[in-house]
Amino acid sequence: MRRLLGMDHSKTFKPLKKHRNEKQKKMHQMTIKTLGSGNLAQAVALPKGEDLNEWLALNTVDFFNEMSLLYGVIANEAAERFTKVGEGFPDGFEYRWQDEEHRRPIRCSAPDYVDYVMTWVEGNLQNEHIFPSRESTPFPTKFRDHVRSIFKRLFRVFAIIYTNHLKDLKEIEADKHLNTCFKHFVFFFLEFNLVASKEIAALPVPTKAFHGEYMKSKSKMREAEDA
């Protein structure tokens, strides 16, 4: 297994995270049922009577799990193709990593950036002060800001995958799954305004296409409610 800059990219495939309380598990089952109906706009909407933070938390876990599976398919190949600092990013972009350990943004390759993202998100999900497992423990005041930071970085991973690995996924017939996952992701972040518009410039074509589908779906839902 190849190691770059001291990082083992086989670890980019993170163990799937479980929902951390019974309420989230029940809401997760509701999501699966709604997704099965084919109405994605309805599937991302906050269920009536449910807590917004709980909804954001369980969907964040779900998207992390999907991303872990998707990137795990191409992680080793990505690590071998893009070995230099600045390589493997969308055209015109170079993401740099910054967290509590790296106060100043550091340059890295795209595979290293993805590894940083997945490790960081995993750490957030395991942090009881951010994602409490007990229903009696309140979410932090700025929980939505934490979720926005996670979604911004997961969006960047999608941009990296589409830019450099779409062909690889097509070869194993996994591209449709990528598109389905990303469409769900786009619908969700549009519903709750979780990704800044400036980020979309890194992946404009599929994002704008799914944005259009989202707007049409929401319009149909409003028409149905008014009927």
What does this 3D model show about the protein?
The protein is built from seven helices and two strands. Residues 1-7 have low confidence and may be disordered. It has helices at residues 22-36, 40-44, 52-81, 110-125, 143-171, 175-192, 204-226, and strands at residues 3-4, 7-8. It is mainly α and 227 residues long. It has one domain (27-226): Up-down Bundle (Butyryl-CoA Dehydrogenase, subunit A, domain 3), CATH 1.20.140.
Task: Summarize the model shown.
The chain is mainly alpha-helical and 227 residues long. It has seven helices and two strands, in the order ββααααααα.
Low-confidence stretches: 1-7
Q: Architecture, according to CATH?
A: Up-down Bundle
For this structure, the CATH topology is Butyryl-CoA Dehydrogenase, subunit A, domain 3
Order of helices and strands: EEHHHHHHH
Multimerization status: single chain
Compute the number of strand runs: 2
Name the features.
two-stranded antiparallel sheet, Butyryl-CoA Dehydrogenase, subunit A, domain 3, 7 helices, mainly alpha, 227 residues, disordered N terminus, globular, single chain, 2% strand
Helix-strand blueprint:
Elements: E1 3-4, E2 7-8, H1 22-36, H2 40-44, H3 52-81, H4 110-125, H5 143-171, H6 175-192, H7 204-226
Helix pairs in contact: 1-3, 3-4, 3-5, 4-5, 5-6, 6-7
